[in-house]
Amino acid sequence: MGKEIEIELKNLVSKKDFYHIAGAFGMQEEDFTLQENFYFDTPDFALRSLKSALRVRKKAGGFQLTLKTPEHVGLLETNQLIGEEDFQHMITGSTFPEGEVYEKLAVLGVPAENLEYFGTLATKRAETGFKGGILVFDHNFYLNKEDFELEYEVSSLETGTKHFITLLDQYGIPYHPAKSKVLRFYETKLKEQ
């Protein structure tokens, strides 16, 4: 699957604003699909301390292993398709699949055998094109919490930020850059301990 740079702008919104703007873009209930993210880290949060994250995304019957690591602008995503058996081995902590993600973890100095399954974040997601990027509507569920988020995936941070802030202003939504889903997940997880 390879590697790609991800530049996303994120904004948490109220449930009311979420459904208002989603409706304004013509999003219907059937436009939302469910995806599940399963997060992994070491017991001492080694990946989190490196501002990195490891997840398996279950979507459309398949499994995609993704390691996100920081870049100068955005995040580098190292992606790898894995089978259900590999996924189950990761959940139980028995083995980790070989490949690009395993190799990148070694470079980071995080042994794959130290990783543990931390929990699941489910997202009902709809997407639409918007001014050269992708506007994403995410309703997230994790660790007995839920939140509503707008994401704007872009190729230029500067141009994307202008378009995103203009859009939010148009709908009277304050711009408060949101933390990533995995950071919100980890902060909630740490409060539980």
UniProtKB/TrEMBL annotation:
Gene3D superfamilies: Hypothetical Protein Pfu-838710-001. Transmembrane segments: none annotated. Residues 4-192 form the CYTH domain. Pfam families: CYTH (PF01928). It comes from the Bacteria. SMART domains: CYTH. InterPro entries: CYTH-like_dom_sf, CYTH_domain, Uncharacterised_YjbK. PROSITE patterns: CYTH (PS51707). This is Triphosphatase YjbK. It comes from Weizmannia acidilactici. The lineage of its organism: Bacteria, Bacillati, Bacillota, Bacilli, Bacillales.
